[in-house]
């Protein structure tokens, strides 16, 4: 390998110049190998020959004077230097996407893709409504949405798999910028024909007189419910636990069971009814709009984030 300084000891502008536009493709090679864990998997993802991927990675390693990947009997693994470089590569790719989107916006094209990572509670109605509103005035903008629990949504942001995230009850220390937030209360959810469906409010004790559907521990709302149940000493008859709201909603439509969901917006899922819960121990959660600190968002994403922030403020 050439005797050169490690990349983190060089001037940032010099690196940017040395990795000119043709090198951005090589950064994609590094990112793909890191995500796939092998040259062959990265080659299939990039639609190139595995030998080409291997050769480009070796070229970059020679240029940097470090090994990015540890070669294993089956696949590869990032070295410490490789982890640093992959983070750099993802930042550069994300920044380039933002610049290209801004250039398109300056030309009046208003094209682009908004990449989101969201909590499940936002998927049935709240986010689709916001996307539809936004696309009416920005018809050339499309969306890529990952529906994840709040921890994985934050990982997607940190890994540049999404540009912004909307999550319920993010961890206290998440290292992200909060662009907007709003309170969100947990409500009882039941079929529209349920005996309690027309009540103005219900207590947990009344809910637990019926079979109960609970989100599993991977969903943020479960921790809130567990704390309240423990404090009240109640013992619900849990007939279903799941990590997918669509499954829980489908079960509720065909049973006398009662479920629980964070209420975001005004529309209950089709065929179901929201009923507020009167329980002083059941504190409101928070829905937060998040982005990486100092991240320059693509123009279409920044515009959509502003639209979401406005709607959250009104809500």
From TrEMBL:
SUPFAM superfamilies: Periplasmic binding protein-like II, Winged helix' DNA-binding domain. One of its GO terms (molecular function) is DNA-binding transcription factor activity. GO terms for cellular component: cytosol. It comes from the Bacteria. Residues 27-79 form the HTH lysR-type domain. Keywords: DNA-binding, Transcription, Transcription regulation. Belongs to the LysR transcriptional regulatory family. This is LysR family transcriptional regulator.
